[in-house]
Write a structure and sequence with these properties.
The chain is an alpha/beta fold and about 230 residues long. It has 11 helices and 6 strands. It has 2 domains: about 140 residues, Rossmann fold (3-Layer(aba) Sandwich), CATH 3.40.50.1000; about 60 residues. A 6-stranded parallel β-sheet has the order 3-2-1-4-5-6, sandwiched between helices.
Length: about 230
């Protein structure tokens, strides 16, 4: 299969920020003097940041309003992301894509402030054609719009544009939209590795397990459409 473009998630895919997000959840729960259950967490995963802020305010009365909760979230995450690290194998993979002239775009639920803070600090920004946030587009990753916009910018055919994500729900959206997918396995999502393999075309535990040759050798699926 040709590999001409990649749409890459940010948190937990490119950047080691998942612990910061888990810590933020703990900070918000502590401030609210509340407990976030596993079922709560499954609800929170696909939410936008504004939805999460509203959820904590509405359910637990945290902050004077949702905007105050969002401000707390932003302050915590910007500080954490300014000291974040790229996940193992990411820089080597991006560099191999650059040499092969594969176009790259970030598509994330995180706001531009978070994305720019981390990517600039890590020196990764020059690799990407564009860095897209759902907040810029007024959407969420529960809909395929951000992925379609990323592909429009790269001008790559859908069957040669791979989606990379560590969120199970986002992989489902990408798959349903006709994109070949790479799942970056995250056990915190609540699904087994075998369940991930049923959802994504390729599943790895990190970019160290991935190569351009692996993607190019993957068989073309007849049902994928442009």
């Amino acid at each position: 299969m040709a590999f001409e473009g990649a749409i890459l998630d940010f948190d937990g895919t490119l950047v080691d920020s998942i612990d910061a997000w888990h810590d933020l959840e703990g900070v918000l729960a502590c401030e609210a003097q509340a407990t976030v259950t596993l079922e709560d967490r499954k609800q929170l995963i696909p939410m936008s940041l504004d939805e999460i802020a509203q959820w904590f305010h509405g359910r637990f009365g945290l902050g004077k309003d949702a905007r105050a909760v969002r401000k707390l979230m932003d302050e915590y995450m910007v500080d954490a992301l300014s000291h974040s690290k790229a996940l193992p194998g990411v820089e080597a993979f991006l560099e191999s894509c650059k040499r092969a002239e594969v176009k790259l775009t970030v598509a994330s639920s995180s706001p531009q402030l978070y994305l720019q803070t981390a990517l600039k600090a890590l020196g990764l920004l020059p690799y990407f054609e564009a860095v897209l946030s759902v907040e810029d587009l007024g959407t969420t990753k529960r809909q395929p719009g951000i992925f379609e916009e990323a592909r429009r910018i790269m001008a790559t055919p859908k069957e040669a544009t791979w989606g990379f994500d560590d969120s199970f729900y986002a992989l489902q959206v990408l798959h349903n939209a006709g994109y070949p997918t790479v799942g970056i396995f995250d056990p915190h999502e609540g699904y087994t590795f075998e369940e991930w393999q049923q959802e994504a075309d390729i599943v790895v535990r990190g970019f160290n397990e991935l190569s351009l040759a692996m993607l190019e050798a993957y068989p073309v699926k007849n049902e994928q459409t442009n």
